[in-house]
Amino acid sequence: MSDDAVLFDARPDGIAVLTLNRPDTRNCLAKDVRDGLFAAWERFERDPALRVAILTGAGRTFCAGGDLKEMVATGMGVPPREMFPIPYDTIELSKPTIAAVNGPAFAGGWMIAQACDLCVAASTATFAVTEVKVGRSSPWASPLIHMIPQRIMMEILLTGKPIDARRAYEIGLVNRLAEPENLLETALELARDILAGAPLSVRAARETVMLATEMGRSAALRAARHASTQCYESADAQEGPRAFAEKRRPEWSGR
Question: Basic and acidic residues bias: where (predicted)?
């Protein structure tokens, strides 16, 4: 296996699998992992053949969070905003992403899993926002309020205690559960479900969800209609109904 901090597998089916590859340090977000993730996300976004990305971890841990030794060595106060590669925040992405959480996702590990559009978790995975345990803070967790109920979010942040994969699924943080040996295949299956849709339709659908999250009802409706114009005016918008009428699989062009 490559000794790269982040492995990048560009599959011929249009799926990219990104793997945090520092199992000896529980895939913590040390500088080499951060740099590798920045490069991997940029590569995914720029490659038109890749339409969905899956982020997972090597070994038994998804990601243990930030590098506490680095924080001590640098006397780090407020982390620079651009320090961590967070999809749709410090990383500009226009395509769907899936976190495949294979083990503990603590602190910064929760952060990067949360930032992905969808989440598949192994039955052995655990999640925790542990910053209160080490005197740090978790402002990145604020979007959680759009994913889970307020009182549950409050308990998770105030106590720093982990929740297991089943609980994460029950509260809506996780989309699908899988046995550890089936985790990647379950994530790939979800990615293939996305790939079955027309590319411009998938992009418009994702933008609609994010606009609805960030805006009030009326503003979100206006913005979503605007975001959908390119989809409606595309060749695929004609191909889809035509294929349905002809009882065949559509051939998407992405145009």
Answer: 244-255
Short-list 210, 200, 208, 209, CA closest to 232:
200
Classify 17 as helix, strand or coil.
Answer: strand
Find out whether 108 and 136 touch, Cβ atoms under 8 Å: no
Q: How far is CA 238 from CA 76, 100, 243, in A?
A: 54, 34, 9
Tell me the HSE value of 253 on the side-chain side, using a 13 A CA sphere: 10
This prediction has a pTM of: 0.91
Instruction: Out of 42, 70, 92, 131, pick the active-site residue.
Output: 131
User: Minimal CA–CA distance to 56: which of 37, 70, 35?
Assistant: 37
Helix (H, G, I), strand (E, B) or coil at 245: helix
CA distances, 111 to each of 10, 52, 130, 139 (Å) = 24, 19, 11, 10
pLDDT of residue 103: 98
- For residues 166 and 121, the answer to whether their CB atoms sit within 8 Å is no
Give Cβ neighbours of residue 212 (< 8 Å, ≥ 6 apart): 220, 224
Residue 251 a catalytic site member: no
Judge contact between 33 and 61, C-beta under 8 A.
Answer: no
Note the pLDDT of residue 117: 97
Burial zone of 187 (CB within 10 Å; 0-12 exposed, 13-18 middle, 19+ buried): buried
d(CA 68, CA 66): 6
Low-confidence residues in the chain, pLDDT < 50: none
Quote the tokens at residue 174: 């996780």
The pair phi, psi for residue 36, each rounded to 5°, is: -65, -40
DSSP state of 119: E
